UniProtKB/TrEMBL annotation:
Residues 96-253 form the Methyltransferase FkbM domain. This is FkbM family methyltransferase. One of its GO terms (biological process) is methylation. It comes from Bacillus salitolerans. Transmembrane segments: none annotated. Keywords: Methyltransferase, Transferase. One of its GO terms (molecular function) is methyltransferase activity. It comes from the Bacteria. The keyword Methyltransferase applies.
C-alpha cells in the first residue's frame, strides 16, 4: 500500500475554469510584473525554451500568456520526462497528441532518422506551430497534422475550442463559461498514421493530452502498440474529464494494464508503479471520486529512466 501523500487536484483548478476572467486578471498582473507593460502589442510572440529551442505563442490568448510567464514550461514533469526519454530511448517515431503550442514537441532535438508527428485539433494554433517547426533543427522530420485523434479513422468529430484557455479545448465541452466555439475536425487514428510505417524494430514515444479522450486515442493505436518493439508514453489522467467523454474508468484501467507497465506521479518527483493496482484501489488512495495526475505507460520496465526522474 502506498505510504506517500497523494497529490490531489487543487480547488483553484476548478475556479480557474469556472471563472475565466479571474484567470485573465491574474495573468495580466504577472505579465505586467515581468514585462512592465499591459499592451499586448509589446509582449513577445516567441519564447526561448531552456533547451534553446524556439516556441511561438499567441500573447493575446491566456495559455500563451502563461507560457510567457513560465518561459515555456507549464508542465515541468512532462518536460523532464520527454527530454530524458528522447535522450535515453532514441525513439524512431514520436507522436505528440494534443500538441497545443508545442512546448513538449519542440522542447528537444531528435535523432536524424526520427519521424516526429504533432496532432492538433485547434486550427487557431496551427500558424504558431508552423512557425516553431520552421525554426526547429529537425524541421524536415516534423509534421503537424490537423486532426482529432480518436478510434475512428473516417469522418469528422466535434471539437470545442476554449477561446479563453486553449489547453481546455476538447472533443466534449468540459468548461462552463461562454467563451467556447464548436468546430468539426477531421478524425484520425494513430494506427492510420503509423501502422504502415512502423516495424517490429522501432521504438515509439508518445504523449497524449486530449482532455478526457485519452482512452479513445489508445484504442486507436492498438495495432501500433502490438507492432512496435518498444512503446513508451506520457498521458494526462483526469478521471472527471474521461468520464464526461464516456469512458468506463475500471474497464479502461484494466485494458491499459493488459498492454503496459503503468506508473503514476504521486507527487511531483515521486513515481509509483501501479501495474498491479486496481482502479478501485487507486480511487481509494486519492480519497476522492476524481483522480487527476499523469501516467507513464511502457511496454517494458523503465528502471533506468525512472531513476533519472528521481523515482523512489
Amino acid at each position: 500500500m502506498m505510504e506517500a501523500k497523494i497529490e490531489k487536484k487543487l480547488l483553484y483548478e476548478k475556479w480557474w475554469n469556472k471563472y475565466p476572467r479571474l484567470k485573465d486578471v491574474l495573468l495580466k498582473t504577472g505579465l505586467f510584473l515581468k514585462y512592465r507593460t499591459l499592451k499586448v502589442c509589446k509582449l513577445p510572440n516567441k519564447i526561448f525554451l531552456p533547451s534553446s529551442r524556439i516556441l511561438y505563442i499567441n500573447p493575446t490568448e491566456n495559455r500563451g500568456k502563461a507560457l510567457l510567464l513560465t518561459n515555456g514550461v507549464t508542465q515541468q514533469r512532462l518536460a523532464n520526462f520527454w527530454q530524458k526519454a528522447v535522450n535515453e530511448l532514441h525513439p524512431t517515431f514520436v507522436v505528440d497528441i494534443g500538441v497545443n503550442y508545442g512546448e513538449c514537441l519542440f522542447s528537444t532535438t531528435y535523432d536524424e532518422m526520427t519521424k516526429v508527428y504533432g496532432i492538433e485539433a485547434n486550427h487557431q494554433l496551427l500558424p504558431f506551430l508552423e512557425q516553431s517547426r520552421i525554426e526547429h533543427p529537425n524541421r524536415e522530420q516534423i509534421q503537424i497534422v490537423y486532426a482529432f485523434a480518436t478510434d475512428q479513422e473516417e469522418g469528422t468529430h466535434s471539437f470545442f475550442v476554449d477561446k479563453n484557455w486553449s489547453g481546455t479545448s476538447s472533443g466534449t465541452r468540459i468548461v462552463e463559461h461562454d467563451m467556447v466555439e464548436e468546430y468539426q475536425v477531421p478524425s484520425i487514428t494513430i494506427n492510420q498514421l503509423l501502422a504502415d510505417q512502423l516495424t517490429s524494430e522501432d521504438t515509439l514515444l508518445f504523449k497524449i493530452d486530449v482532455e478526457g479522450f485519452e482512452a479513445y486515442v489508445l484504442n486507436g493505436m492498438n495495432k501500433v502498440i502490438q507492432k512496435a518493439n518498444r512503446v513508451v508514453g506520457f498521458i494526462e489522467f483526469d478521471s472527471g474529464f474521461m468520464k464526461r467523454a464516456g469512458t468506463d474508468m475500471e474497464a479502461f484501467f484494466s485494458r491499459v494494464k493488459e498492454h503496459f507497465y503503468v506508473y503514476a506521479y504521486i507527487q511531483e518527483n515521486h513515481i509509483q508503479d501501479i501495474s498491479l493496482v486496481t482502479y478501485e484501489e487507486l480511487a481509494a488512495w486519492w480519497e476522492t471520486d476524481e483522480i487527476h495526475t499523469d501516467l507513464l505507460l511502457s511496454t517494458f520496465p523503465l528502471p533506468d529512466l525512472l531513476k533519472q526522474l528521481r523515482y523512489n
